[in-house]
Fold these 3 entries.
Entry 1:
Amino acid sequence: MEKVKIGIIGAGRIGKLHAENLVRIPQVEIKAISDIFAERVTPWAEGLGVQNVTDDYQDILNDPVIDAIFICSSTNTHVPIIVQAAQAGKHIFCEKPINFDLEQTQQALEAVQKYGVKLQIGFNRRFDHNFKRVREMVEENKVGDVHIIKVTSRDPEAPPSEYIKVSGGIFIDMSIHDFDIARFLSGSDVEEVYVQGAVLVDPVFAEHGDIDTAIITLKFKNGAIGVIDNSRKAVYGYDQRVEVFGSKGCVTVKNDFSNTAELTTDDGVYSDKPKYFFLERYQEAYIEETKAFIESVASDKEVPVNGYDGLQAELIAHAARKSFEEKRPVKISEFFTNAVTKY
């Protein structure tokens, strides 16, 4: 089978991760990588066998050989690159969020639809082996009608002030993954959002108009209720747990550990802390989402996480922000929602 030829735009931490995963897939060839610091990136790219490194992403979009691109650059660049890539007939994998502005996101999705290219959004948690199994159990009616979904998502360490300032805030930067996984596990869109939030970890969040701790309540269109708890700092590691409770039973996912050894003595029971960093916790999920995108391109199948999914997660994030600011439940219908349902 002919190889899928890929261009990567942005070679920061996440761009490098995707590139290093892509070179492990036999049916993929990375044709080019672009980054504004091309000279700095070149030695690393050459180590992967990629000789074509440029500081202008237009070089990738203008290359007729390239089938698809990975957008791993800063969020403010996503929409113009998506629009231009769609016009160039390139399939697109884009990291979340598509944009901080819903109107801009809609513009990108309209371009994808108009030019008939594929767009997959980087919600990697859907590809986690445990979360996938929970979704399967829900689909197989093992828990019956879904009543309650609980998501715990706590970072091991707060990000630096420079990052907080440009992140878009906790809901669009951090919680957005939880909004998507809640939709994924429930099999339903969200209808209403209510938030209680605070600054309990570091006053620097307040300086940037943000919070670091939140409880988010979701009301789903299928009648289920969701609860997400977020913190920017869990001293014991990266805390990622879910529970789906329904009319027939309950399924839970605990944290991943480096090992499952457990020491029991007369002093107590001891085990290792959870995995510390998101790249470590979701290493395999990143690989699986990459494989899924390549398979969609190679076999001309629909992508498993599309632009509609990206838009819905952003809508929930904006509703969450509004709920926190106005101290009231906020319906998703209060926002711009005239998007079609397939991208």
Note: The chain has two domains: 4-123+286-304, 125-275+310-334.
Entry 2:
Amino acid sequence: MALSVSAAVLLAILVFILMKGGYVRLGSMLACTLFGFTLAATGLAPAINSALALLAGLLSSL
């Protein structure tokens, strides 16, 4: 749970920075957000979560 909250906060900050910098516009941001919510409701969600947990484990071991 803590990993998903930390990842969500980090990604929210990244999206905010990209939007403020002009790299991502509001329409693109909304489309990507809706895609993420839709993807989370599919059968791929457990695989994505386990891949993120594996990546976090690899990064923490460095």
Note: Residues 10 and 49 are 15 Å apart (CA to CA).
Entry 3:
Amino acid sequence: MSLTENHPRRRGRPPKRDADDHETRDVLLRAGVVALTEKGFSATGIDEVLKSVGVPKGSFYHFFASKEAFGAELIALYADYFIRKLDQFLLDDSLTPLQRIDAFCQDAERGMARFGFRRGCLVGNLGQEMNALPNAFRAQLTDVLIDWQARTERCLEAAKSAGEIPKSTDCAGVAAFFWIGWEGAVLRAKLERRAEPLHIFAHHFRAMVTI
């Protein structure tokens, strides 16, 4: 019999070790996201992440081949989380398209305030330190931002159809402008530990797009 032969899994609850491994891995990923939203990749040490959740170092390398592999998974995890958050607002048919963007901005402000403006955007944080990061992160982070822009562009197209913004609006360009500006506002809000940069950007974006 081959050692690689697959056997049907028995019905019922999975073995406790599998469940424990899955839980430990999730704990490490959650701790990593917190660290990267607060400090970035370069300033975050693996030992620091492990200590924060009480996981031994050997367990880390059981799940992740390296810090780079860990970082790549954190980017993917954060991207999936943020897509769900964006869709929650940008696909909300109970609001007009521009109100959906307003609601997203307001929710993001509440999220930053909840943590005393210590946490920013993981993607924005890593983008700021790109020269010190593995080059593979560049394409991964760019793809995430392009995806966010595409979702925002569709919302702006809906705003155009609803007559909220001019028919001549370049929705792709405006969506790119939104994310370039919003990431800067989030960085400034984190730096100053206050919401004013978010308010300024959201207000002037709204004024610009409706001209």
Note: The domain at 16-209 is CATH 1.10.357.10 (Tetracycline Repressor; domain 2).
